[in-house]
Fold each of these.
Amino acid sequence: MTHLTGTPDTQHTADPVSDRLSHAAQCILLWAQDRRVLRLRSDRRIGVPEDEHLQQWAEILINRGIADEDNIAAVLNCAFDAACRSGEWRHWAFLTIQVQLAAEQLGQMTNRVISCGPPAILVAEDPNSEWAVAKEKIRASVGEIPFKNWFDQTNQLERTGERITIAVSDEPSIHYMKTEYATVIANELAEFGIFDIVWRIVD
C-alpha cells in the first residue's frame, strides 16, 4: 500500500494523533480505490468517498485502536460486505454505520491478545466446546465452501477465562481468518465471554 512521504518541517511539532488519522484516511482511500467503492458524492459525481467521510471513518478506527493497515482493511471489508448483504445502498452514511459496528467488534479483539503461539499437537475436539458450537454458527454465516476451506480443520485446545486457544494448520490460514472473518469470529466468541484468541499451528 502506498504511503505518503514529505520533507520534515523543523518548525512544526508532529502530532501523533493527527498523523495516525492522516495515515488511516489514506489507507481508507486506497482501499476504496482498490475495491472500487463508488457512490454518489456531494459534487453529484460518482466516485470514491470524499474527505469528509475518510476523516470520519479514520476517527472511528483510531478511537478503537485500529491503526494497522491490515486491520483497517479488515474492518472496511467487513463493513462493506455487511452493507452489500443488506441490499442495494446509495448513501455513505449507511456504510458509516457498518464501519462503526465492524470497528467495535474488531477493536474489541485487536486490543487484546491475538497471536500465534508455539506449535501444538492436534487432539480430538469436544463437540460441546465453545469453538465447536461457534463453528456451527459460523458455518451458517459464511457458507459451506468457505467454512470447509478455513474453519473445518480448526480445533479448540483450551479455554481459560476470556482466552481461547485454537489449533490451525498453518500461518496463512490464521492470517486469512483474522483478516476476512474477524467480525464473525468476534461475534460468536463474545457470546461465550471470550475476547482473547491464541492461534496455534498444529504439528
Amino acid sequence: MGKIAETGHAKNVANFKALTAQVSEMGARYNPSADSIRLSALTTRGIQADQVMSALIKAGSLADNTTNKRIEQFAKISKLITRISATLKMARVSPETMDDAAGFIAKLRGKRRGKPADTSLPSPSSSTIAEPVHHPTTKSVSQRSFDMQQAAFGELVAFIEAQPHYKSNDAALTKEGLNDFLVGLDAANTEAIVVNNTYRQAQQTRNMELYDRQNGLFTIVSEVKAYLKSLPDGINSPDYKNAVKFQFKSFY
C-alpha cells in the first residue's frame, strides 16, 4: 500500500474530527442512546486517533532513517571486498586460496561461480518502509538479502582470519578492522529490523483504531450517520446531508 493510502488514513481522521465538530454544533438535538457515539466518546476517539497517527509518523520517519543507514553501511561491502582481494594477492597466497576467496566474493556480489561477473552488490530496496506488510508471515526479500550479505561477509572474514600471511597496514583491512566492520553490519541490520518491526506494530495499531469492525472509527462514523438518519427529517435533514459529506473510506 502506497502513499495515496497513507494520505487517505490521515484524511479519514480529519473527516472524523470534522463530523464530531458538526454534531457538537447540533447541541441538544444530538442525543444518541449508544454510549459509543455520544459527543464525549467521539471527542475522546478523535484525540486517540491523533495520537495513534502521530506515533505512526514518528515510527515511519525513524524506520526511513535507520533503513537508509543500513543501505549505506552495506553499500560499503562492494569496495571493501575488492580491496580485500588485492590485499590477499599482495600476501602471495596460493592460487587455491585466491580461488576460495573468489568464491566468497562471488557470493557477496550476488553471482554464481562460472557465470559472467556482476560487479555490483544486490541493492535491497527501502520501498518496504513506505508501507510494510501488515501481517508478515515470512521475511521480506529485502531483509533476506541483507541477512545473506551479512552472513556471507562473516564467512569471508573467518576465511581471512585463517590466513597466516594476510596482513595490512590499513586499519580497515586488518583482521581486526574487518571484524569491526562485520560488527557494524550486524548493528545496522539489527537496528533496522527492530525499528521496522516497531513501525509495522504502529501500522497495526492504526488499522485497529480506524478500521476494526467492532469499534473502529469507520464503524463509529457509520453509526453516527445512521443515528442522524433516524431523526425526524431523516435523509432530508440538513444535519444528515452535511454528515454524509464527510467520507470515511476503508482500506481493508
Amino acid sequence: MKCKSIIFFISFFLFFHSELYSQKVESQIDSLLVLSDSTLYSNIKQSLAYAKKANNLAKNIDNKKLKANTYLYVAVRLGELTQYEEAIGAAKAGLKIPFDDIHLKIELKEAKAIFNSYLGLNSYAIQEYQKLLSLIEEYNEGDDKELFRKTKTNIYQNLSASYYNNYQTDSAFIMINKAIDILQKVPEKGKPINGSEVYLTKASYLLGTEKQSDSIRFYANLSLQEAKKRKDDNFWDQYRHLGIYHFYEKNYDQALKFLHKSLEDMDKAGLPDDFLSKYDIYLTLSDTYEQKGDVKKQILYLKKSDSILKNDTFKNKQEVSEVADQQLKEKESTFLDKIKQYQYYIYAIVILLGSTLIISYIVFKKKIFESKKEVNQKNVLLHQTEKKSEELQNKVEDDRFEKLIDSAKKNKASFLILFEQQYPDFIQTLRSMNAKVTNSELSFLAYAFLNFSTKEIAYYTNVTEKAVQTRKYRIRKKYEIPTEVDFNGWVKSLVK
C-alpha cells in the first residue's frame, strides 16, 4: 500500500511538473512572437530570429496549434527576405501538424500560395486561392464573420497579384477592386489590418499598366494615410510610388523628396542592398537628376542600379524563377501527353474514314502536277539566275540581322553600334528629336524597334518586367506618346 502511494505521488509530481514546464515554455513562445511582430517592419532579420527561436521551443511541447503558428511566423519572415523556397517549406511543415483551427490553416495555405506565385508558379497559386475562397464560402462563418471578411480581403489582394504576374491584368483589377469593395463596406473599426497594402497594390497596378496617373497618387496617398492611422513603423513602398508618380508628372523636387525618404525607410527596416525595389528607385533618381542637370548624381545612382543587376543574389533569384517556370511547363506537358493519348484513338478513326478521300485527292493532284510540271521547269530555268542572286543578297542581310539579334539577346556592348550601322536613319531621327538622348535610352528603343516584348527585354537585359514597364511609361511621357498607341509600333514609325 505504501509503495502504491509513493508511485501515485511521483506520477502526480511528474504530471504537475510537466504542465508547469509546458506553461512556462508557451509563455516564452508568446513573448518571442510578440517581439517578432514588433520588429517585423523595423528589422526583418531580427524578427525572423525571434520567430525561429519560438519555433525551436515549440517543438518540445504538445500544443499543436501554437507549434503550427510558429511555422507560419517563420514562413512569413522568410518570405519578407525573399527566401521563398524555405518559406514554402515552413508553411508545409505547419500544415502537416494536426490541429483544428480553420483560420490558421487558411493562413498557412495562403502563405504557401503567395510564395509559389513569387517563384513564378502563378497558375498554381491562382488555383490555390480559388480553393481557399470556396473553403471560406462553405464554412459556417458564425461569430467569425468579421475575421473571414478580413481573410477574403487578403486572398482577393493576393489572387489579383497572381493574375497580374500571369499577365491577366483585367482579372487582376477585378480582384483588387473586390478587395477594396470589402474594405469600404466594413465599418471603420472592422477594417482589415492590410488596408494600406490593398490600396498600394491598386496604385502599383496603375503604375505598371500606365493608366490614370492621378489615380496612382490617390491610392498611394490613401495607402499612406491608412498605414499612419494604424501606426506602422515604415512607409518606404508608399514613398516609392509617390516618388515615381511625381517623376512622371515632372515634379522633380517632389520626386527626389519621396524617393530619398523611401531609401531612408528601407535602411531603417534593414532591407538588403540587393532588394529589387531599390533598383527602381536608383534608376528613377538617376533620371530625375538628369532632368535637373546634376550629372554627378545622375551617374552615381545609375551605377548603384547597375550594381544590383550584377549582384549574385539577384542572378540567383532569376535562376530560381527560371527553374520554377520550367517545372510548371513540365507539369503542363504531362497533362497534354495524357490528352494526346485519347486523341490518338480519334485520329485513327478519322484517318480510316477519310483514307478513300485522301487517295482520290492524291491521284487528282498528281495529274495536275504532271500537267504543270513542264511549265514549271521552264519557269525555274528562267528565274534560276535571279533567284541565286537574291539568295546571296538575302544571306548577307540575314547574317547581319542574325548577328544584331544575337548581340541584343546577349546584351553585348556592341549591340547599339551594330544597330546604328544597320538602321542609321532611326538613330539620327531620335537624336534630332532629343539632342540629349542617352545611349541607354537609344539601346532600349532599339529593342522595341526590333519588336522585343516587355518580357523579352526584361529577360535579355537582366531587369524586372516592372522596370521595363516603368521605363516605357517614362518614355511615353518624355515623347508625349498617347497611351492608346502601341509602344513598339510608335518606335517603328520613326523610320518610314
